[in-house]
């Protein structure tokens, strides 16, 4: 029996999931769960990276107390954020949060001053999001950040945590692609792009594929924790890469929605799609497992509802997530919509006011009560899913019979049902722990337990329940979709 550990770090919480493989069936157990609260210090929103490392150690201590012998461990997290190391190997500062406002307006300045949109897309195949690593570094450069003077090495968040554990400074491919500094056609960091942005190529080290053995715990770490020198695998360290690895599909051509703080929708392709339309639709080609790419688009996701919830909490209104969903279900249907991807909703803050303003601006009656506000957001998400699914079909030249939904967001049954209604096709929901399970799967591929991603997906399909949501009220949702597009200016 093989027992391994997946650390999956999300933008609001992290977890360590134990995976056991018995009789070609995967059994998981949540060993450790912890909050991941970013910290605002002065003008900067930062990740508490040492706390995350501490929690990783707590997970290992729990395996020791339980007498569990691990064959390996892997770490995945959200993308684009990074740490900079000094020449002596020390971390120079807490990594910035991608929602920090220091990147505001920087993307446009980079297009004007360093590299045009078309060329940047042709070189990287990555969608334009203002917080991409390239723009974060450009923002720091423009602000004269002293960190850039001292930096010797660049590591993404999971690279950095893996480095703390093993001492190895390796860049993992799936996450490296999200920087918008990696050239998938060259299969390397884009040296010319780095030069144009004034970033030293020497900061960017060896890139390894998901499933690479990446050392084992340093003696100092295993000694401190009283555990063995456990092997560490570089999994698909971008959480979305891990989530897509866990999609329990039988078909090679499938559509997925990784549903959490973000909603990531797209399909898996063998080569990046770099044409004019991909650029116009602002689709991305993120590196995946086994040489694949994720042709997808970011949709703002449940972030808006998470922020609404936080804000109500601050006002002493302690709604649980299921409560909010229930209230949304009881609110009147099809009353008002937003485009969830309006940049207005990107930064943390007063979402209720922003949702209401957005509705007023588009001539709709702003939602009032919490249930109405949440209904407006969830319906808008479901309708936006249809829009992006249509773009995915048109761009990939594929037709999808339904949509695989994975990730914690599938616990929101109302959203799954409305998604099926909006797209007019079945939704297959599961597994909820997509990223952590994909992380486990790639470790087992690295160990030779699974031959490839297809054997892994087959085993995942046999091990976890997948719930089917058939579309309902198709006519009403189709009419709603047309009005939604007009109101939000999508067509
Ligand atoms: C999802 C995710 C997205 C990425 C966003 C920011 O957790 O990794 O794929 O665009 O977070 O890093």
Structural class: alpha+beta
Shape: globular
Q: What low-confidence regions span 5 or more consecutive residues with pLDDT below 50?
A: none
- Please provide the count of β strands: 21
**Bound compounds:** beta-L-fructofuranose
Q: Can you tell me the CATH architecture of the largest domain?
A: 2-Layer Sandwich
What fraction strand? Answer: 15-25%
| pLDDT averaged over residues | 98
Strand order of the largest sheet: 17-18-16-15-19-20-21
If you compute it from the alpha carbons, what radius of gyration comes out, rounded to the nearest whole angstrom?
A: 22 Å
> Count of DSSP helices?
19
Q: Describe the largest sheet.
A: 7 strands, mixed
Taking the alpha carbons of the first and last residues, their distance comes to: 54 Å
- Helicity level, as a percent range? 40-55%
CATH superfamily of the largest domain: ATPase, nucleotide binding domain
What is the CATH topology classification name of the largest domain? Nucleotidyltransferase, domain 5
What is the total number of structural domains?
Answer: 2
Note down, in words, how this protein is organized.
The chain is of the alpha+beta class. It has 2 domains: 2-234, ATPase, nucleotide binding domain (Nucleotidyltransferase, domain 5), CATH 3.30.420; 248-430 and 451-491, 2-Layer Sandwich (Nucleotidyltransferase, domain 5), CATH 3.30.420.40. The protein is built from 19 helices and 21 strands. It has helices spanning 49-65, 106-113, 117-124, 133-142, 146-150, 157-166, 173-177, 191-196, 219-225, 239-245, 276-280, 303-314, 321-330, 351-361, 370-396, 413-423, 434-446, 453-463, 474-488; strands spanning 2-9, 13-22, 25-35, 39-41, 44-46, 72-77, 82-85, 153-156, 171-172, 182-183, 188-189, 207-208, 212-216, 231-234, 255-259, 263-269, 284-287, 293-299, 403-406, 427-429, 467-469. It has a 7-stranded mixed β-sheet, with helices on both faces. A 4-stranded mixed β-sheet has the order 3-2-1-6. A hairpin with a 5-residue loop joins strand 17 and strand 18. Helix 13 crosses helix 15 (370-396), helix 15 packs across helix 16 (413-423) and helix 17 (434-446) packs across helix 18 (453-463). The longest helix is centred in the last third of the chain and has 27 residues, at 370-396. The protein is globular. It starts with a strand and ends with a helix. The structure holds beta-L-fructofuranose. Beta-L-fructofuranose is lined by residues 78-80, 98, 238-240, 261-262, 264, 298.
